[in-house]
Amino acid sequence: MTIEPTAQQAAALFESVYGGAPAGLWAAPGRVNVIGEHTDYNAGFVLPMAIDKYTVAAAAPRRDGVLRMVSTAGGGSAVEIALDQLTPGNPRGWTRYPAGVAWALGGAGVLPQTFGGADIAFASEVPVGSGLSSSAALECSTGLALAGVAGANISPAELARLAQYAENAYAGIPCGPLDQLASAFGADGAVLFIDTRTFSINVYPFDLADAGLTLLVINTRVSHDNAESGYQDRRTTCEKAAEVLGVAALRDLTSADLPQARAQLDEKAFRRVRHVVTEDDRVERFVNLLNLGPLTGPRLNAAGELLTASHVSLRDDYEVSCAELDTVVDAALRGGAHGARMTGGGFGGSAIALVSQDRVDKVSEAVLAALPQAEIFQAVAARGAHRFA
Ligand code: GLA
Questions:
Q1: In terms of domains, do 185 and 229 share one?
Q2: Using CA atoms, how far apart are residues 67 and 108, in angstroms rounded to an integer?
Q3: Are residue 128 and residue 254 in the same domain, yes or no?
């Protein structure tokens, strides 16, 4: 279990900063999105899995209405804020994520009126800025820890919803629900087929090892400056296009509607719409392949082609890839990957590649020759947010 060292680090940090032992340890994972990118704020389909890299929150209750937060990555000293001082934008820096979750849980009545605050120490093995949702892991571990020390219950659906709300309304980042749903609902050896309109979730076994396959994660270790403004810009374009086309969300269009969309939109907006419509379709096709049985033979080829087609669409129509992501995707394919694509929001971060186990070395070599700074690991589909101890 890879969670143990991270849990020990969180507990050790708690003891050294606050004195005494934490009341409990709560863990939440990062994610990779297998397919379905930039569809979640268009009410569409996504297919993520939680990965076995966790953020762990060691926490204990307080009685004086104060929240204290410290992290192994944050430089040692704790940030402190009174619960009645929590307002969007305060504090700044990484603590705005856990502070935002305290604010959201308080506002939603998940935490009782009598809640007296908490001390929390975090440790994480989800690399920051890698497109693997370190912020969702931080939010979901915080949500469980706060509910835990308050003796309150929170369902995975409430956890995901309030974590996304905290990120949008408190931290000021206009993300969709993908990352928080994946971190809250992740399941061992499984992908989650999520309809982001209804939040209905179907869990599909994703036993790649049985089919002699693995999913490589390739972290480019670049995070581009324009990620936030680029994301907001894509979202706004999609919302305006939906309005022009007379639908509640782009999810309501099919490829049969594309000629009409081309006639009504400018060229760039049309390409954005075409990405979303074709990507929703690719998610459904991918899920259909999983329904047919293990990814072998023609099913494997078809699955690989869908992944690569997703990348091409994100690169050319949605324009959220970057040179390093394109480089590693091309190198992985040249090295023999069945399919490869960027994963997450883009503008840097990570790519994934579906690879036969006997080609892992070749693909890794090809990727590292093309981008020596890349960091490569095999993704294992893992359990979502839970109390660890
Ligand atoms: C980021 C956001 C998600 C989602 C992806 C793109 O990870 O946080 O909500 O929009 O980008 O699919």
A1: no
A2: 18
A3: no
Chunked mean pLDDT (size 10), the chain, 389 residues: 91 97 98 98 98 98 98 88 95 95 98 97 94 97 98 97 97 96 98 97 94 98 83 98 98 98 98 98 98 95 98 98 98 98 97 98 98 97 98
User: Are residues 362 and 330 in contact, defined by beta-carbon separation less than 8 angstroms?
Assistant: no
Q: Please choose, from the candidates 294, 353, 297, 345, the residue with its C-alpha nearest in 3D space to the C-alpha of residue 327.
A: 353
Query: Considering 119, 179, 280, 317, which one is annotated as catalytic?
Result: 179
If asked whether residues 20 and 122 sit together in one domain, one would say: yes
- Most distant CA pair in the chain, distance: 66
Of 32, 34, 40, 236, the residue with max ligand 1 atoms within 8 A of its CB, to mutate for a pocket test, comes to: 40
Question: Residue 129 has which token pair?
Answer: 């800025």
Closest ligand 1 atom number to CA of residue 167: 8
Which atom of ligand 1 has the smallest separation from the CA of 176?
9
Domain, as residue range, for 285? 206-379
179 is catalytic: yes
**Residue of 230, 20, 40, 47 lying closest to 121 (CA atoms):** 20
Ligand 1 pocket, CB under 6 A: 33, 37-38, 40-41, 175-176, 178-179, 344-345
Q: What pLDDT, on the 0 to 100 scale, is given for residue 131? A: 93
For residue 1, the model assigns a pLDDT of 52
Considering the domain architecture, whether residues 357 and 301 belong to the same structural domain is answered as: yes
Residues 194 and 289 in one domain: no
User: Into how many domains does the chain fold?
Assistant: 2
Atom of ligand 1 nearest to the CA of 173: 8
